[in-house]
Design a protein that fits this description.
The chain is an all-alpha fold and 184 residues long. It has 7 helices and no strands. It has helices spanning 3-13, 19-27, 33-43, 48-91, 110-133, 140-149, 154-183. The longest helix has 44 residues, at 48-91.
Length: 184
Amino acid sequence: MNLIETFQNLVAQVPELVQPLIVALAGAVPFIEGEGAASIGIIGGIHPVIAAIAGIIGNFLCVLVLVLLSSGARSAVIGRNQQRKARLAATGGAGGVTVVEADDEADGSRSAARKVKFRRALDRYGVPGVSLLGPLLLPTQFTATMLAATGVSKARVLIWQAVAIIGWTTILSVFVGSVVHVVS
């Protein structure tokens, strides 16, 4: 049994009042996200609007936590590197210690290649484009984390991720709700 079937079975087994919470929980899972969670809820018998709202909330709360964590981690790393550089400058670089810039683009690894692609997309389409088109390729959780890690402001990332989550979840909820209505 896969994760989607697990959530569908769980939605069917819990009381009606708890079903939106299960949908919200599913929305926090990468690759299921708000649109998948809303679809699970709609197919499980939840009203499409309630399922969409629950999926959006679950997806956005997960993105919010990840953006705050990755932004905080970036700030800590940059602060530590600046302190290290200041110490080296004060001591005249004694001890043979070399500060290496965090430039993954020079690294020949597969991860570095992905980062370069992401950076090019960010330069080309901006935060709105990456946020709105990102769900076609990557979960919003990954896109939001990468945006925050590159130094984009938390508010900007969160606003555009909210727009993307609401938009994609609404589009898929309308589609799935229409199909369920026509079939039943």
